[in-house]
From TrEMBL, chains A, B:
PANTHER family tied to this protein: METHYLMALONIC ACIDURIA TYPE A PROTEIN, MITOCHONDRIAL, METHYLMALONYL-COA MUTASE
Recorded GO CC terms: cytoplasm
Organism, as annotated: Pseudosulfitobacter pseudonitzschiae
Source organism, top-level taxon: Bacteria
InterPro entries with a match to the protein in the record: GTPase_ArgK, P-loop_NTPase
Single GO MF annotation: GTP binding
Family to which the UniProt record says this protein belongs: Belongs to the SIMIBI class G3E GTPase family. ArgK/MeaB subfamily.
Protein name: Arginine transporter
Length: 326, 326
């Protein structure tokens, strides 16, 4: 791959070049990783999309929301990329967003770009690749990058590390219990959207929204939140209501954070985080080769059988990797 | 240090040699780590102590319990070592068990050996060193190794990774709430001991014990638990009551696990865990040197300022470490 040429094509908005570049950053091959780093380094760093993380358990209507919300944004002339971090793809190879037919309007929209979650052997791998895909989409001139994930906790944490704003999508639910949403995810959310606020569920949605608004007031007050944030709002992806109010709210929060320095500071911290993660992952990747795996398995078995001490086996493993202990 | 000579001295019960060897495994210096691994590899692997993890928040009487329990064991002719994993020592340099005067009887007892938590920069370091100190005490012929920690969650997990049994020490408390004990710690406990079951607190202790017995029944049933375990019991370290019943209970559980294969299987898994942790820690230790720290700081600042992409900076860091990306 010609790096300079590919970079130019991405900048000029060539979707096929973007798709190929994302495939490159998703590859685990050593030469691909080097090329990917070179490409990311060659891209201009002056284009900035609004990066929005979006989480919600299955069944809350994430796909329908993304479709309606994305269509509204493209209708305003904005270019929208949709990416995903799917921890289940790390295990099963299956992935959310894999089926673009769930968002068939948005998938056909020229101003939109949808990419399913990469399959990787572990969440850390999925996350790093997605962070790099976000950077590629940003360089390609997208105005909004939506990063979807599914509400299980760990994947939200990594999405929050690459997003400017974090949305939590919830379904209307009776009772005052908070739908088993993990406290950690609640604490991450900048805006909670109660979806399906339509038809028979409207009244329930109103109650749910009030419950969460109350919980949010108790839960968090961070310096990077202006008055009134985090906020709970109602939307109906089906009836297309509340979506523009939600978008205005996101812009209000992003604008406030930009003015008060939190936007850039968060991005700086995130970039440092990914740099450090990437270095650590590369050092540990020395254990991924076939020979290293075989040595780890053999020494691990000796240790398990009590034939040698873990520390001595570790020294032997490091020697086989060509390291002396640092 | 002459490894063969030191190993011989440890095996023959030389306490000064043991103390020096623990100091060696606690060192972070590269040559010390190599020597430590050599020493651990040179020790016989046929001696087996019962390794008991012990957790409890400050104020429940851990020191008094260890003193009374340890004196009871040495009174039965058993040799007892007491070690500690203290996450606060990773931050402050202070340590639990630092003050042997809190256990002045046991500290003077020839059959007992007390060692405070090592100071390290992070919990992982404290944990690995303590695991190695346990192995040294075992080779030195101790019958029981008590590993003390303080109830904050993460340190319990690492202690459970080096213990055959896990005890949770609690104070009697009114009400039916579970004293804010983290669910994860409850799930780790094989035996919960309600301490201070004496004097005015006796009735409260009885109620607390019943509460926890009920909670344990709901919480866990693992294949490695015989009928009736996990168990809640009352002890008074002050009045020396319940301690021998508690010891019998521990022996009963350990015996059952030995007969049913769980004891050895758990030890095998633990040994493999520490081997893998040790390899990973050594690979990441390449970032600990002065030059590496300076490079990380410089590249991290460039990344934070948006001058370069995290992935490209990571490649540059790996190159400076003499690595090409794997």
């Amino acid at each position: 791959m010609d790096i300079t040429d590919t970079a130019q094509r991405i900048i000029s908005g060539d979707r096929r070049a973007l798709a190929r570049a994302i495939t490159l950053v998703e590859s685990g091959r050593a030469d691909h990783r080097m090329q990917a780093a070179e490409l990311l380094g060659a891209l201009p760093r002056d284009r900035q999309a609004l990066r929005i993380g979006l989480s919600g358990t299955p069944g809350v209507g994430k796909s329908t929301f993304i479709e309606s919300f994305g269509m509204m944004l493209t209708g305003q002339g904005l270019r929208v990329a949709v990416l995903a971090v799917d921890p289940s793809s790390a295990r099963s190879g299956g992935s959310i967003l894999g089926d673009k037919t769930r968002m068939d309007q948005l998938a056909r929209e020229p101003k939109a770009f949808i990419r399913p979650s990469p399959s990787q052997t572990h969440l850390g791998g999925v996350a790093r690749r997605t962070r790099e895909a976000v950077a590629l989409c940003e360089a390609a001139g997208f105005d909004v990058v939506l990063i979807e994930t599914v509400g299980v906790g760990q994947s939200e944490t990594v999405v929050a590390q690459m997003a400017d704003l974090f949305l939590l999508l919830l379904a209307p639910a009776g009772g005052d219990e908070l739908q088993g949403v993990k406290r950690g995810i609640m604490e991450m959310a900048d805006v909670i959207l109660i979806n399906k606020a339509d038809g028979d569920l409207k009244a329930t949605a109103t109650r749910t929204c009030a419950d969460y608004a109350g919980a949010l007031r108790l839960l968090r007050k961070r310096p990077q939140d202006p008055a009134g944030f985090p906020k709970a709002m109602m939307v109906s992806a089906l009836e297309d209501t509340g979506l523009s109010a939600a978008w205005e709210t996101m812009q209000e929060l992003a604008g406030w954070r930009r003015e008060n320095g939190f936007f850039d500071r968060t991005r700086a911290e995130q970039a440092q985080y990914w740099f450090e993660q990437d270095v650590r992952a590369a050092l540990l990747a020395q254990l991924d080769g076939a020979q290293a795996r075989a040595d780890m398995a053999r020494l691990g078995a000796e240790v398990a059988q009590g034939q040698t001490d873990p520390a001595l086996a570790a020294q032997q493993m490091l020697a086989s990797l060509g390291h002396t202990r640092q």
